[in-house]
Amino acid sequence: MHGIEIFRNSNTRPDAGAIACGIRMGLVYPSIVCEYAEWLMNDQDGEGCSDELVEMLIFKGGDKEALRCLEEHGFRESDNSARYLRYVLLSNLQSAGHELLEEIEGIYATFDYPEDMEPCIYYMSSGEDEGSEESVLSRFDNFMIGEKNTLDI
User: Fold this and answer.
1) What is the phi/psi pair of residue 49, to 5°?
2) Burial state string for 13-30 with b = 16 or more CB within 10 A and e = fewer than 16
3) What is the pLDDT of residues 56-108, one digit of tens each?
């Protein structure tokens, strides 16, 4: 399970939809809602979040009521919330080589085997050079660049 640091570590803005998705999937601590509220308080760009909402989120802790409060104020999962969360989690992977490939496969499974990640999965590669560790990692790098552009991060 993760907290708000997964966004900091990947140089991405915390996203309420991705947080809601992460809570629903059991990938982030429910208390991340409080951390998100604190981040909103200090955010220079702002997200149209009132002081009242921030106080309510901090007061409610990390329970489902706080998540419901977020949703009532228009902070919901969107079509790209899971994809954004997946990008953030993949950006946080610290391993190298074969261990990194195994961690990528774990996230691939967690997100219900998305087709767009298949080229990044070692055991799904075919052809002469396509299955080498180096080529799979290269495709993973290209995948992450594409995701960053698609998600406009």
Assistant:
1) -100, 125
2) ebbbbbbbbbbeeebbbb
3) 665 655 556 666 766 776 667 888 999 999 999 999 998 887 899 999 999 99
Distance CA 13, CA 11 (A): 7
User: Whose CA is closest to 91, among 40, 18, 16, 17?
Assistant: 18
Q: Coil, strand, or helix at residue 5?
A: helix
What would the two tokens of residue 145 be?
Answer: 């660049």
Sequential DSSP letters for 86-138 = HHHHHHT----HHHHHHHHHHHHHHTT--GGGGGG-GGG--STTTTSHHHHHH
Contact 18, 85 (CB under 8 A): yes
- Residue pair 40/101 in contact (Cβ under 8 Å)? The answer is no
pTM (two decimals) = 0.83
Q: Assess contact for 127 and 136: CB atoms under 8 A.
A: no
